[in-house]
Design goal:
Blueprint: E1 2-4, E2 9-10, H1 11-20, H2 26-32, H3 42-55
Helix pairs in contact: 1-3
């Protein structure tokens, strides 16, 4: 599913970046992609996706 419609960024892309490039937070995802640079409605969904990955133990816990 698309998380950022403005830039065509999907949940799979966010998951892949989180796992393969250690992009564990929205700030890092935004440094790699244009996520949130238009309307910003995708930020909350991105946070939810990353939190879900952390709770599934696919990502290390970051304080």
């Amino acid at each position: 599913m698309y998380v950022c419609i403005c830039h065509g960024i999907s949940d799979k892309t966010i998951t892949k970046l989180a796992i393969e490039r250690s992009a564990y937070d929205v700030k890092t995802i935004r440094q790699i992609t244009p996520l949130g640079s238009q309307c910003g409605k995708c930020i909350r969904m991105t946070k939810d996706i990353l939190q879900g990955l952390k709770s599934e133990a696919q990502l290390p816990k970051v304080s």
